[in-house]
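We close this part of the discussion by returning to an individual protein. The encoding preserves chain order, so positions in sequence and tokens coincide. The sequence in question and its structure tokens are set out directly beneath this paragraph:

===
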Amino acid sequence: MKKIISAICVAVLTLTSCQQAKQKVFEAASQQVNKQCPMTIDEVTRMDSTGYTGSDNTFTYYYTLTGAADNADIAEATQKHLEENLPGIIKTTDDLKMYRDMDVAMEYVYLSDKTHEELFRVKITPDMYK
């Protein structure tokens, strides 16, 4: 998938302006990931989809918590854990280098499987991972 995204990036950059190119690259990346969704991450987490918003340069992941994790106490603990650990993970993950290089904010939205309502969201901005 990394090769596909890189190839799309090079092609788009040669055809359009930088901002338009960035938007097309990340929209294409989102579409590629969405073809694999829903995707089971672990026994209590499912990735449902992704999206990219060019106006604020944010790549968003949408997850659903299921089973035992689908409750307020565990959701709160998960949110705290993500807020503490995601900046470091984004900073050091090779597959996210292109996102770092283009100063993309990463947002993680978690929904309840029972109620389909949002439990929490965590947004990591470039100043948090650089």
About this structure: The longest strand covers residues 45-53.
